[in-house]
Amino acid sequence: MKRNRSRLALLCVAAALVATGPAAASPDDRDLLYEVHAPLGAEQALFAGGFDVMEHREGDSLFVLGDSATGAALERAGFTAAVDQVLPEPSAGFTAGADTFFGGYHTVDAHRQHLDQVAHDHPDLATVVDYGDSWRKTRNRGGHDLLAICITRKRTGDCALTPDAPKPRFFVMGQLHSRELTTGEVAWRWIDHLVGSTDPEVAALLDTTEFWVVPVANPDGVQNVQQGGDSPVSHRKNGNDTDHQGTTCGTVSHSHHGVDLNRNTGSNWGLQNASDGQCDQTYRGTGPESEPETQALQALWRSLYRDRRAADPAQPAPTDTTGLVLSLHSYGNYVLFPWSGGAPDRRTGNDAPLRDLAQRLAELAGPGWQYGQSGQVLYSASGTTDDWVYDDLGVASFVWEMGPPPEQACGGFFPAHSCQDGFFWPKALPMLLHSARHTAAPYAPVPEPPADCATRIDDTDTPIITRTPPVTVSLTVTGCAGDARSASQVEVHFKNLTGSIITLDLIAPDGTAYRLQHQRVSSLPDPGGSFTVDLSRESRDGTWQLRVHNVIWVGTGDLDRWSLTL
Q: Closest Cα partner for 459 from 424, 491, 416, 484?
């Protein structure tokens, strides 16, 4: 159905363009998004052909950004392609001095001011660190400082640029690919959550963990993106416009100047799906670590993390290795970990704990999310930052591809700004907190649940009387030592409900409430379902409660049964 809706949307856009008269741009003059049949392994010809391949896959389909000539080029390269979307034509440009663009996305300068303001308002928590210069700044052509912020409850030795820090470090980076607007916004909100949350868990984490955030790792590129104003420029790479090949790059998305900073590290550099054509979006640069942004990031990581990499590449980093590095990207639904480059069946020495943590994060993210090495679920990529962090330091590293919900309402590089608070941030926060809990020991073995810790079921019918205080039912768990899982399951089923507006909460033994469902409106007799909840900070044993509130004023019914799998 989604494909049919896309085709219909395309026809509507085309009709609107014709109706507006000669002043409107035709589809031939605008960016088009093609759906391309490219099963895993077959995508290498797309990159070799210089196509702008999106970081998104649906089954055997990848997506390519181009113009009217791109479709014919795809066919010549042996691919079956169809137009999936016509991108909006440019409208209002960027207003100089503005803090936001495209409905509320923050500019490079706004991000800088935000870091300074946070450090000013929270001197006991936050320190801004200038860790280098962008490409343009190194050429005295404007450009930007490369800025990070360290957030922790400060004690002696905290936020120092030394790998022998007293606390483990959780590092989050946004907008390495400048057009991936969601990633910078998630980083912004993560900073605000750390310094402003009243959650006791956040307070405890600030006592024990250093949080490092680089909201904009590619500021020159973001400056290019924001110049489009209400129609952001689809620029992915950094600001390096040096002509190395006697070719002048264009202004369309599939022919931009710059170097792809996620193909420029020395780890697996120049292997799969990294172009040697300087106008291609995956251009790897003239050599490994050729770009100042790459060099500065690597120097920062080396100053923050001890080198725990085993001398033999096949051996794991020690289980007591601390720290976690996360690079945010868009717009797929993936949790990725090394290796991204090399053969897809090549494994790191720490594959099992990386895979386990990735699985738990994908489960927290919800339906449609996959986890694995990039070549297993998306496509291989060489010279990436996640490979470098593990390859050079042995530190756990991940890439999250922040993508749209199943209905596609918030898809693409440029979703409506309302999607940030309404969709992306609520999804990212539990994943970020779960990662923070594992920063001290990401490679520690994960104990299996006790064999006798089976699903607990309460099959007692309980009347749900409307317009009364919520109904609360209990399940007592005993003989199930240890903490619950990050992807615990709650099942709730009703019967005889002719209409309902149901809110569901799970109450842990310590009194912590977990919202399962908020005011679901339903005419079905069973408005319940299955819910995945991160209960990893809760002990299994104890009395758990399900709180049911039906606020509709007509009818009654019963809670049929509910169950817990901890």
A: 491
